[in-house]
Amino acid sequence: MTRPEPDIDRILTDAADRFGTPSYVYLTDLVEDRISALESAFGRWFRLSYAMKCNPNPALLSWLRSRVPFIDVSSGGEFLLAQSAGWEAERASFTGPAKREIELRTVIQAGLGELVVESLREARLADRIAAEAGRRQDVVIRIAPDRVPKGFGDQMAGRPSPFGIDIEEAEAALAEIIALPNLRVAGLHIYSGTQCLKPAAIVENWGIFIGIFRDLCAAHDLRPDRLIFGSGLGIPYHPGDQALNLDEVAAAAAPELDALKAEPRFSDTELVLELGRYLVGPAGYFVTRVTSTKDSRGARIAICDGGMNGHLAASGHFGMVLRRNYVIHRVGGGEGEEKIDISGPLCTSIDKLGTNVVLPRVEEGDLIAIHASGAYGPTSSPVNFISHPTPREVLVTGGQMTDATRIEGAGLRD
Ligand SMILES: Cc1ncc(COP(=O)(O)O)c(C=O)c1O
């Protein structure tokens, strides 16, 4: 049964009235639809793993717990957050280039599913800690390929990179890791590029992964339990961006994925698609209230209660080379159209959420909504800078709206 489209403006207005602004509003119905779409396109090959770095909100994490099989954590802190949201340690993998001893000890003692080993140093340390804990720890080894196709918003391989073991070193490193007595090599992992909206580039990248997985497993006679594919699936952020057609990606990837699954070495291997923003990004909105407007030398500016401090990514300072507006609308619509700049409350000229945005006439007290804000939101932003109120987080599940705010700062609230 298809659900009726949510009345976004009513939801955002209610959330702002009840919980205040600036706020992030996450709609779980939309996440549910995205999980279904991913399962229907890729379910015959992949199971999903949620990279919680993109949105570690505890209420969202516990909602996801019964809907996504695996979780990827990138710090000891994320591991503890996932556990308190009810995720069992065995369902977690742990990535990250700078894992500290205390983090490794904590997760290994707690029964982590898989450690994603990113260097020989980490493998040796984990081996020692596993011995002390009396465990044989499952690991998957992260490989950094020597090439990433064009079209990824951020790339973690194909050039000097802190992430994973460079493919050039992988054969020798694998031999050493396989020989460590307290680790068990359960598989391989590659995450080399993210935020890609080009189906051909995503499929080509997965093809690179498959080639590497095949060669390394053959060289070491591994029959892996698990191969983890960093999805790279991107989402539309800016006006004019085209959303990915998952069926098109699936159809183009099918020959190589089917061939891999058909090989006896991989007949019992579970393929995992690790992803963050694709699952939750489009299901979240950032809502900020206009505290004043100003006409300045021919430009009209809406000055809002939340800006770059609440939403660094929308201000263009989170990995964007050229600042481009996110999709933005005035909640509740309105008459006419005019160009307006949208700035935040900080005393710096880089605190801008939009330039020349075409909106109906905006006045003091209006709400502005920024789309595609469900990933890399509050925890990726300098929320304490200048001690304005930190963003509220609101979880909307069916008809229920709950305050799911995680970060309390020193800001003075209304
Ligand atoms: C290892 C790893 N896994 C998962 C992700 C999540 O990427 P995305 O949110 O683009 O799906 C990233 C992003 O940087 C990553 O580095």
3D architecture notes:
The chain is of the alpha/beta class and 414 residues long. The chain folds into 2 domains: 88-275, Alpha-Beta Barrel (TIM Barrel); 282-403, Beta Barrel (Lyase, Ornithine Decarboxylase, Chain A, domain 1). The protein is built from 10 helices and 20 strands. It has helices spanning 8-19, 28-42, 58-64, 76-84, 101-110, 120-133, 167-179, 199-219, 246-262, 277-280, and strands at residues 23-27, 46-51, 70-73, 92-94, 114-117, 137-144, 152-155, 165-166, 183-190, 193-196, 226-230, 270-275, 284-296, 299-304, 328-330, 338-343, 352-359, 367-370, 392-397, 400-403. The strands form 3 sheets. Strands 1, 13, 14, 15, 16, 17, 18, 19 and 20 form a 9-stranded mixed beta sheet that branches. An 8-stranded parallel beta barrel has the order 2-3-4-5-6-9-11-12, surrounded by 4 helices. Strands 7-10 form a two-stranded antiparallel sheet. β5, α6 (120-133) and β6 form a beta-alpha-beta unit. α2 crosses α9 (246-262), α5 packs across α6 (120-133) and α8 runs parallel beside α9. The model has no long low-confidence stretch (mean pLDDT 96). The protein binds pyridoxal-5'-phosphate. Pyridoxal-5'-phosphate binds at residues 51, 54, 72, 95, 156, 191, 194-195, 230-231, 274-278, 375. Its cofactor is pyridoxal 5'-phosphate. Pfam families: Orn_Arg_deC_N (PF02784). InterPro entries: Ala_racemase/Decarboxylase_C, De-COase2_N, Orn/DAP/Arg_de-COase, PLP-binding_barrel. Keywords: Pyridoxal phosphate. Residues 31-280 form the Orn/DAP/Arg decarboxylase 2 N-terminal domain.
